[in-house]
Prior knowledge:
single chain; alpha/beta; D-Maltodextrin-Binding Protein, domain 2; 2 domains; 5-stranded mixed sheet; 3-stranded antiparallel sheet; 46% helix; disordered N terminus
Amino acid sequence: MKKVFVLLLASVLLLSACSSAKNNEGAAGGETEAASKITVWAWDQNFNVKAMSLAKDAYAAKNSDLTVDIIENAQNDIVQKLNTGMSSGTTKGLPNIVLIEDYRAQSFLQAYPDMFYPLTDSFKASDFADYKIGPTSVDGVNYGLPFDSGVAGLYVRTDYLEQAGYTVEDMQNITWDKYIEIGKAVKEKTGKDWISLDPNDMGILREMAQTAGKWYLKEDGVTADLAGNAALKEAFETYKKMMDANIVKVHSDWSQYVANYNSGDVASVPTGNWFTASITAAADQSGKWAVVPFPRLTNTPNSVNATNLGGSSWYVLNVPGKEQAAAFLGATFGSDVDLYQKLVTEVGAIGTYKPAAEGEAYKAGSEFFGGQNIVQDFAKWTAEIPNVNYGMNTYKVEDIVIVEMQNYLQGKNIDQVLADAQKQADAQLK
């Protein structure tokens, strides 16, 4: 009897062990779950999250077996969570797909090279704007699938222009000196300021520098490039010219920035195309705006009338389900022309996928902008943006630049300003 009991007990333990092993395998590997569900992190409910929702719906029509869970987080929270998880060496709690701003991408890709899944085989890089490939790649390997374009333009109030004796044609492919000249005339004739600037945000300098293929950092993306940077020096000087011309209305936050334009107090905005939604929020100004090419630097020979501000791309983390996540991105943002038409019409997002420019949404005129085909114009300018290496430390260097800009405005010599900024950056980036 004892022998029978021992045999029964052994059988129960064996079955229990098998069952436990099977459950542990499923929990630890997560392959079964990963094959049917992926998680995405993104910020901005009305822009990035909405865009991913459209991609989710488009993919569901082709593959209903995959569940895509989209979780909204503030951009700063995403940065913090990624750094915390990756620096600890654990992927627990991290998503399959994450949106990362192009300015920050290299800091993640180079600091945590094993945490990202290569996407080179998931899409055709040559189908995307050249300037987006550099920030999203390392050593020729594509880790990010380019998403929205931060291509910039110059939004301008046509009614104020006319009062000052100018037309939209006078604003085509102009220099910054010409921009300031026209701004003075507009201020004199209308009493309206020409531009709104935040002294704690030097995005305008980044835009100016990139028109000449320059940045705060050298081409290696590591070494500071401030002293001796002719494009950046001219950008500093142009900023001061605008302040001295008394055509600037200062703002301190986003809501003030938007309000300055929606109220009609400021007449032009040199910024990224994502600002279209803010401009068009003032329905009473319909027909009073146009968008022209971004101004180029006056004295820097290789400066062009095209640049970028912002923009982000999608990345797949090296966690279970990475193959499904890569396939999902490749089939949506990587190749779906129809999806990109919806991104324009339903989100106002202009992608950097070249074949999408042939779609109907890209060819439609905008009633708000007097019938102008602003999407097609932005798509054209996207192809002209100089490629620069944003590197790992754009915002670290900009913190230094912000302080030195104030010193410059208060009378410090420009060459000394850039030399001191260089010393500080060199010390910080060691």
